[in-house]
Amino acid sequence: MQDERSLVKRAQKYDQEAFAQLYERNFDKIYRYIALKIGNNADAEDMTQQVFIKSLQSISSYKWRDIPFSAWLFRIAHNQVVDYLRKKTRQPTASLDNVLAISDSNPQQSAEDRLATDQLMSAARNLTPAQQEVISLRFAGELPIAQVAEIMGKSPGAIKALQHSAIVALRKSMSDYRDV
Fold this sequence. Notes:
Rna Polymerase Sigma Factor, Chain: A; Arc Repressor Mutant, subunit A; 2 domains; 77% helix
């Protein structure tokens, strides 16, 4: 984390190489998070770029609080997603086919994977918005509970409870699909 802190300090002094390193470290996680939330790869790429443009424009006012820099980036990304969804006036659902690369080398496996993905996405639509957000940040964004708590403005215990209830609900929904 100390290395990241020094990168941020350098980026705040307009060191392009430092900002480029922060960009490289965080781009994939931010992109996956946005793509999962909005379900459109092209828009997700554009929005991810906007997250980094906004972060570059306001990095000089960034205050280090002993949490990873990515938490700040995810907050910017979250706000971008909210704005996007407001403009689109639709529910925050996505097709994982756009996010996950499913191998076509085995057509049967690929078809089974697509079916499982569709079932998972259908089950995820039944989660509360807070549960969907926790699942997106924890698994698409690969963030630890402490960072998710910071981004969502909740306690780590509340995040653990949301994650647990979301996973239980997903398991139940997925078992309902298998029973059909």
